[in-house]
Amino acid sequence: MPSASCDTLLDDIEDIVSQGDLKPQDRHSARKHVVPKARKRNTQKYLQEENSPPSDSTIPGIQKIWMRTWGCSHNNSDGEYMAGQLAAYGYEITENASDADLWLLNSCTVKNPAEDHFRNSIKKAQEENKKIVLAGCVPQAQPRQDYLKGLSIIGVQQIDRVVEVVEETIKGHSVRLLGQKKDNGKRLGGARLDLPKIRKNPLIEIISINTGCLNACTYCKTKHARGNLASYPIDELVERARQSFQEGVCEIWLTSEDTGAYGRDIGTNLPTLLWKLVEVIPEGAMLRLGMTNPPYILEHLEEMAKILNHPRVYAFLHIPVQSASDTVLMEMKREYCVADFKRVVDFLKEKVPGITLATDIICGFPGETDQDFQETVKLVEEYKFPSLFINQFYPRPGTPAAKMAQIPAQVKKQRTKDLSQVFHSYNPYDHKIGERQRVLVTEESFDSKFYVAHNRFYEQVLVPKNPTFMGKMIEVDIYESGKHFMKGQPVSDAKVYTPSINKPLAKGEVSGLTEDFRNRLGNHLSLVPHTSVVRRDPTSSRMALRLQRLHQDCALRASVGLALFALLLAFLVKIYN
């Protein structure tokens, strides 16, 4: 066994060379005896490589990105903000998934099918060798799931850093930002409201007024992602609404996990916010209020009725009941009873004539008996809700309800089917045929045959595709009705209301480039006028960014090359001396 120590100390590693070994200068002189071998070169390929610019994969900011969003309007708002920031930095948002270099998948965790679609999209992206960034409630709630390993994640409160995550992912790195926004230890509502965004519909602005909730429903996975209630200040929300109207928006949706709980964490409430918002709504524009749970709206019924009667606020409210059985509601930890829900509905129907009340129902919650389900059926038969969202119960991993004794799948499916039949047994709009209504036109129907408008009660009215109607409030005569819609014929001599003095942004155009964000973009936007709306050619903007990033990349390569050359020169000087 050789000794672990040496008898002679070495002053330098070069002392290991024996006297019989060739010295560096001897090796160099011996090179003259080496005969180089000629190597054929593909001249055409070489010239192409010399003339080609560096690969897009090495220059973040010039790639194509495809986005897919599942779930609620809050999630859709997050998606709009992420698209806006990426486009402002030069990325091209494409509707063609196969052409994209990176897929940004914005997920929903409410039900199993939504997560299944999300998982399948990840698998497809991997099969097509796409770069992937994940967002939304699924990775926020369960970032350690096996199918998420090694993938970049942007948290629901970190969407203002989506550009950083995308850039690092383009470079081949995996980045995860899942932290909470805080100010002096207090949790904030999320990313700033004045970030750039690309509205899916340039006429509709979705504003998240708060994130999270105060409940702890046993079936809910969203709570794991969005957390406890955190509200935005009233002045920031009003300013966002004002800016949106200046950009040609004619309809605002207020959204959150529970709008009724707004402000309880910052010393205010929902009616106070709504009264401030209606002050900035121009004539011909409308405000739609999002979902609210019964416990918190009960405290403000009188004020809410007054607001819902305002001519620029839709007489519409979404109040989920989930079940008409108090036993089931207790197991769900919904913090109200059926009588509370009926009190809200009855009061609003009396004080706001014609109001549209939408609700949600879960079929087959653990422990739900046939009698419990029949109570729910009776509730639907009694109120004949014009808008009813029926959901089969799905146990979500990590929730208390997932650990409860489950009802057989066939029973859940049958109850869902039975309740759907009850819902389709009545037509809520037949009595409105012959009415003259004022409607706001905001989008095109799925079959592209009509424009879609909504009346005072946020009921869907299909009107002829006249381009002059889009974004306007017009009068129509109702001549036909279906389960979910009415059809209206425009009145020829009626007044047309144009709600905004500015022309709406073009589809795909970035809105709200603030001074702070402009500074972060860099000098390439220095020539753009300093206004709240940046109307610019997206192609020229992307070209400017590509040139800027190309110059930066070339400068970096030159610096690295010079440094390596200096090191090589120093090494050669050392060995030859």
Automatic annotation (TrEMBL):
Superkingdom of the source species: Eukaryota
Cofactor(s) the protein needs: [4Fe-4S] cluster
Pfam families attached to this UniProt entry: Radical_SAM, TRAM, UPF0004
TRAM domain span: 430-492
Keyword presence, Transcription: no
Annotated transmembrane regions: 555-576
Radical SAM core domain boundaries: 199-430
Biased composition (Basic residues): 29-40
Protein topology in the membrane: Single-pass membrane protein
Region annotated Disordered, chain positions: 19-40
Domain MTTase N-terminal: 63-171
Location(s) in or outside the cell: Endoplasmic reticulum membrane; Membrane
One example GO MF annotation: metal ion binding
SMART domains xref list: Elp3 (SM00729)
EC number: 2.8.4.5
One GO CC annotation: endoplasmic reticulum membrane
Record's cofactor remark: Binds 1 or 2 [4Fe-4S] cluster. One cluster is coordinated with 3 cysteines and an exchangeable S-adenosyl-L-methionine.
Keywords, alphabetical: 4Fe-4S, Endoplasmic reticulum, Iron, Iron-sulfur, Membrane, Metal-binding, S-adenosyl-L-methionine, Transferase, Transmembrane, Transmembrane helix, tRNA processing
Matching PROSITE patterns: MTTASE_N, MTTASE_RADICAL, RADICAL_SAM, TRAM
Reaction it catalyzes: N(6)-L-threonylcarbamoyladenosine(37) in tRNA + (sulfur carrier)-SH + AH2 + 2 S-adenosyl-L-methionine = 2-methylsulfanyl-N(6)-L-threonylcarbamoyladenosine(37) in tRNA + (sulfur carrier)-H + 5'-deoxyadenosine + L-methionine + A + S-adenosyl-L-homocysteine + 2 H(+)
InterPro entries in alphabetical order: Elp3/MiaA/NifB-like_rSAM (IPR006638), Methylthiotransferase (IPR005839), Methylthiotransferase_CS (IPR020612), Methylthiotransferase_N (IPR013848), Methylthiotransferase_N_sf (IPR038135), MiaB-like_arc_euk (IPR006466), rSAM (IPR007197), rSAM_horseshoe (IPR023404)
Stated family: Belongs to the methylthiotransferase family. CDKAL1 subfamily.
Role: Catalyzes the methylthiolation of N6-threonylcarbamoyladenosine (t(6)A), leading to the formation of 2-methylthio-N6-threonylcarbamoyladenosine (ms(2)t(6)A) at position 37 in tRNAs that read codons beginning with adenine.
The protein's name in its UniProt record: tRNA-t(6)A37 methylthiotransferase
Lineage, uppermost ranks: Eukaryota, Metazoa, Chordata, Craniata, Vertebrata
